[in-house]
Each structure stands twice: as structure tokens, then as C-alpha cells.
Write a structure and sequence with these properties.
4 strands, 75% helix, mainly alpha, globular, 15 helices, two-stranded antiparallel ribbon
């Protein structure tokens, strides 16, 4: 904020891209709590498939109610876009399932690092679909972020043993996650309501995941575990629903409206940063100097992208808004 020559106050301009990056950064921070909540739920006795269906179920209920209250017409989507919503929901379900399969073959740190490489797949698809340029700045930021993630997750000390099945599941996760993000960006660009995208994607994900984990069984388990823990389990479940699900996806969709999917993915490098800090605070996990260096590298990348892209957006007048 700055003062004008007449003594009044003139608000400093900021770009829509800058706003989008702020939303993306906050979404990445919210998503970083996902692993902590999943661990707490697992410790309470919930299996991986029950946790997998809980996530889209929260989004389905919340964004359905939100559409009813704010935009009932959002339930009506053009036929040619409806197929893309189904595909997005299918990609979401496959991503959740394939990630669970991946971590059964490799340590979580290695899986998370390899999956983050989907940023390069997203860059290529975005170049084809949105004509987005693949610049040295993007590639450099992505590579630096991956190096930081390796340090945060102690990937270099874990070793790597080749496993064909595990690699196949990781590749599937990379492809479906990339497809889902590009589809959602395309639908936003076509004017489809972001809440509609989240609601329908969650609906189809729930329908698909219900095959392996029936909702009534999950509800029964929630009631039973909540009763056994005097309500503690319910607090964990609600936290899981409102922070890394509803909160994260709301911010994600707002950010994706203004920025390229590749930059959204780079902002999600904050995921292991938040996860490591919460692991240290909640589960008393150790944090070594190399982990701290990795955290600093990732934060540095996020700040660099935030500053450079916001400045570029301000210099482009159609992308500028006064706050």
C-alpha cells in the first residue's frame, strides 16, 4: 500500500496470478496436514480404503450443500463437459487407490518424491492443451523443489530397490493425478463452476470407491470407533474433512482458476514441509539438519515463484487488479 501525491491512500496493485499463487500456497499447506490425519485415523483402526472414501465423501456433502445455497444452477452442466467430470472423478479414485498400492511396495518418502515428478508431465500436457510455455524458470524451480523434497524426506538414505509392480502403480498415480489437474483447469477455463467440478468429481470418486468400501460399513465403523474413544475419533475425522479436504480443495480450485497447473504443483512442494513439521510436533519424529536445509530450499522456491510470477502479472495489465 502506498500514498498518492494528494495525501490519499492508493492501494498497491497485485496480479490475478499473484492471488492464484497465494491460494495455491495455502492449499499446499492445508494438504500437508493430510498425512498426519491419515496416520491418526490409521492408529484409530481405520483401514486405507475407509480413509480413501472418507476424503471425497466430505467434499461431496459440503460442495453439494454449497451449490444448493449459492448456485443451484451449478448442478446443471453441459453434456460435453459432463463426460470430463466423470473422467476427473475416475482419475481421482484411481489416484487415491494407486497411491495406496505404491506405498505398499516402496517407502512413503520415495513414492512421494517420484510422484512429485508429475510436475513435468503436467508441463507437457499444459503445453499441448493450454499452449503454456515450458520455461527454464519452471523447470529449474521444479528440479530444485524435488531436490528439497528429497532432503526433507531422507530419500537418499532410504535406498531404492527395483520393483516393477510398485513402479507401475507410481506411474499410474503420476498420469492420473496429472490428468485430473489438467481436466479441472480446462473445465474452469470453460466457465464451469469450481464448486460443481469438486462436487461431481467427489460424487464419481465415491461411487467408484464404494465398490471396495461400502459407505454404510464406513459409517458404522465411525460410530463404533467414536464411541470407543469418547468422541476423540470424531474430532480427528472432522479435522481430516475440513482441513486437508474441504479447506484444501476450496483453496486449490480458487488458485487453479488463475495459474497454470504446473505452478500449482510446485506450490504443493510445501506438503512434505508441513508434514515434517507436524511429524516433529505431533509424533516426536526427529528432524536432522539436512531436513531443515530441504525445508529452506522448498520455501525458497515457493517465495521465488511467488515474487517473479506476481511481478510478471503486474507488468501484464490485463492480469492486474487493485486491492
Amino acid at each position: 500500500m502506498c500514498r498518492s501525491g494528494s495525501g490519499g491512500i492508493t492501494l498497491r496493485p497485485i496480479s490475478y496470478k499473484g492471488i492464484g499463487l497465494v491460494f495455491a500456497m495455502l492449499s499446499g499447506i492445508f494438504w500437508g496436514t493430510n498425512g498426519t490425519f491419515c496416520t491418526l485415523l490409521s492408529n484409530l483402526g481405520f483401514d486405507t480404503y475407509s480413509i480413501a472414501i472418507l476424503a471425497p465423501s466430505f467434499n461431496l456433502v459440503f460442495f453439494s450443500v454449497l451449490l444448493i445455497v449459492t448456485n443451484k444452477s451449478g448442478f446443471i452442466v453441459q453434456r460435453n463437459y459432463f463426460g470430463l467430470l466423470i473422467l476427473s472423478g475416475l482419475a481421482s479414485a484411481i489416484t487415491n487407490t494407486s497411491f495406496v498400492k505404491s506405498v505398499s511396495y516402496f517407502p512413503v518418502g520415495i513414492v512421494s518424491t517420484l510422484i512429485f515428478c508429475n510436475v513435468f508431465v503436467i508441463m507437457i500436457i499444459s503445453r499441448i492443451v493450454f499452449k503454456s510455455k515450458i520455461t527454464l524458470k519452471k523447470v529449474g524451480a521444479a528440479i530444485t523443489a524435488i531436490f528439497g523434497i528429497c532432503l526433507v524426506l531422507d530419500v537418499f538414505s532410504q535406498g531404492f530397490q527395483h520393483n516393477s509392480k510398485g513402479l507401475i502403480w507410481i506411474i499410474i498415480t503420476i498420469l492420473t493425478w496429472s490428468t485430473m489437474m489438467v481436466l479441472e483447469k480446462y473445465l474452469l477455463d470453460q466457465g464451469v463452476d469450481g464448486n460443481s467440478i469438486l462436487m461431481y468429481s467427489a460424487l464419481f470418486a465415491v461411487l467408484i470407491l464404494s465398490i471396495s468400501s461400502p459407505p454404510l460399513t464406513v459409517i458404522s465403523q465411525i460410530i463404533q470407533v467414536t464411541d470407543q474413544t469418547n468422541g476423540y475419533a470424531l474430532l480427528v475425522i472432522l479435522g481430516f474433512g475440513f482441513i486437508p479436504q474441504i479447506g484444501c480443495y476450496s483453496l486449490y480450485m480458487k488458485g487453479l482458476k488463475y495459474i497454470e497447473p504446473s505452478y500449482m504443483q510446485i506450490m504443493y512442494s510445501l506438503d512434505p514441509v508441513v508434514a515434517s513439521i507436524l511429524g516433529f510436533l505431533v509424533f516426536n519424529q526427529t528432524m536432522r539438519p539436512l531436513n531443515i536445509v530441504g525445508i529452506c530450499i522448498i520455501i525458497g522456491v515457493v517465495i521465488y515463484v511467488q515474487i517473479t510470477e506476481t511481478r510478471a502479472g503486474i507488468e501484464s495489465k490485463p492480469d492486474m487488479v487493485n486491492l
